[in-house]
Each structure stands twice: as structure tokens, then as C-alpha cells.
Amino acid sequence: MIIAVDVGNSTTMLGVLEGTDVVLSWRVTTGERTRDEYSLLICSLMARAGVDKAAIGTAGISSVVPSETGPIADAIADDTGAGVVRVDYRLDCGIVIATDNPMEVGGDRIANAVGAYFEYGGPAIVVDMGTATTFDFISALGEYKGGLIAPGIVSGARELWERARMLPEVELGRPERVIGRTTIEAMRSGIYHGSLGQIEWIIRKMWEEVGCRCRVVFTGGYCDLVRKGLPFETEFAPELTLKGIAYAVEPRLRPASGA
């Protein structure tokens, strides 16, 4: 079994996989924790789910929060005895990081590209809706070519109601109409349709630049909210990052040439 961890700016995803099948997954708030605190968290989650720590043979971690990477990796190694592999530009993860400066590419974006390539094949675009909304392109040859980083739907909304003093905090959701009849409706519509329009426009511009209308794979905490409003089909892969970590750290799981 594999334990995969993706440490994001807002939340941390932990998953237990049999091969590339996610058997269990948890999402916790990313915070400043010590090695011992991570050990307690991981042990309690696995014990409650009935997971035998001795069954964990491999561990992989992608992280965009350097201060948390070491403590959680050390805790996993202590508790399971598994070697912990960090997913970053230095790892032979099955794809080529074909950007000007590979060391700038976050481990989560690498894991997403790996997961998309080996689950769906290339070319493909991965849209990850988290604290930021990222767009990444992977070629038919398994080359990670780069992408875009945009404000996330929640961070953008929070900026709106924190800076505009008369605007309240609103719950995100798909509005019934575009033209809101109250301030709350207007804000919800603006946040939703603004994000939807941004995503559709960027995908179309990426298609134009790469010269084909390739597959689009959505992941991240808010992906299902927006992708259903797009006028074209997409793949829904909420556990893509965890699967990508598994493919990255276990070469035996990879198909010969993508999906």
C-alpha cells in the first residue's frame, strides 16, 4: 500500500492507495504542526479507518509549504517505516519537466501532470481549483510544458468582501440567474460567473496555442462547482493529485506510454 500526501496552502490531502486506487482519503487544514503532532494525526486517522501501518510500503509527498514538508515526512517515516519520496523536479516521475526553470514547478503541479498523463494520456490540460487556480499542459509525449497560475475562486472572493467594507461574506454556489436581485445574489453570481468565464477563456486560449482541442481534467476542492457550467465536456478527477503521487513514486504502476 502507498500513503500519498499533498500539502497545500489551505488544506492537506492524505490518501491510502492500493496501486493507484484511492482506498481512503482525508482532507485536513494545513497548519503549523510538529513532527509529533503529525504523527498523532496520521496514526489516529489510520487507526480509525482500520489501516495497518505495517501494510504501508511506500510513501510520497508533494508540498507547496516547505515548513511542513519535513515534519510530515519524518512522521510518516517514523510511524510506517516506509521510505518517503518527495515529488519535485528532481524525481524521475515518468514525465519530462520541459520548462525554462524546472525547479520553479511545484510538486502538486508535477503530481497533477503525472496523474493526468498516466490516467488519461496526452495531450491534456489540468485545471486545479484550490487556493490558486492552476492550469497545466502535458503533451502527447509526456512533456510538462508549463501553464498558468491565477487567483483561486475563494481567495478572490475573500479579497472582495475583506476590501469592500459594505459587502458581506457569502456562501459560494451556482446562482439561479446571472443578474442578481440582491447584494448577496449579485456577489454570488459575480464570483461564480467571473471564475467560470476566466476558466473557459483560458482553456480556449490554451487550445489555440497548442493547436488542438485536447482533454481537460479538473481537480481541486472547488472544481465540481464550476466545471459543470462549462459548454464542453471535462473529466472530473478529485483525487488526481494523490494518484499522480502514486505514479510518481512507484514506476511499476506506470503504463508503458501514458494511458
- The chain-level mean pLDDT equals 90
Helix content: 25-40%
Integer tally of domains: 2
Q: What characterizes the major β-sheet?
A: 6 strands, mixed
Cα-atom radius of gyration: 19 Å
Element pattern in H and E: EEEHEHEEHEEEHHEHEH
- Strand percent estimate: 15-25%
How far is the first residue's CA from the last residue's CA?
A: 22 Å
The rough form would be described as globular
Oligomer status: single chain
Number of extended strands? 11
In spatial order, strands of the major sheet run 6-9-8-7-10-11
User: Uncertain segments of ≥5 residues (pLDDT<50)?
Assistant: none
The number of distinct helices, counting runs of at least 4 residues, comes to 7
**CATH arch. level architecture of the largest domain:** 2-Layer Sandwich
Query: Would you state the CATH class of the largest domain?
Result: Alpha Beta
Task: Tell me what you see in this structure.
Strand 10 (about 215-220), helix 6 and strand 11 form a beta-alpha-beta unit. The protein has a 6-stranded mixed sheet with strand order 6-9-8-7-10-11, sandwiched between helices. Strands 3-2-1-4-5 form a 5-stranded mixed sheet, sandwiched between helices. The longest helix is centred in the last third of the chain and has 28 residues, at about 185-210. The protein is globular. The chain has 2 domains: about 1-85, Nucleotidyltransferase, domain 5 (2-Layer Sandwich), CATH 3.30.420.40; about 95-240, 2-Layer Sandwich (Nucleotidyltransferase, domain 5). It is built from 7 helices and 11 strands. About 40% of the residues lie in helices and about 25% in strands. It has about 260 residues and is an alpha/beta fold. Helix 1 (about 35-50) crosses helix 2 (about 65-80). The model has no long low-confidence stretch (mean pLDDT about 90).
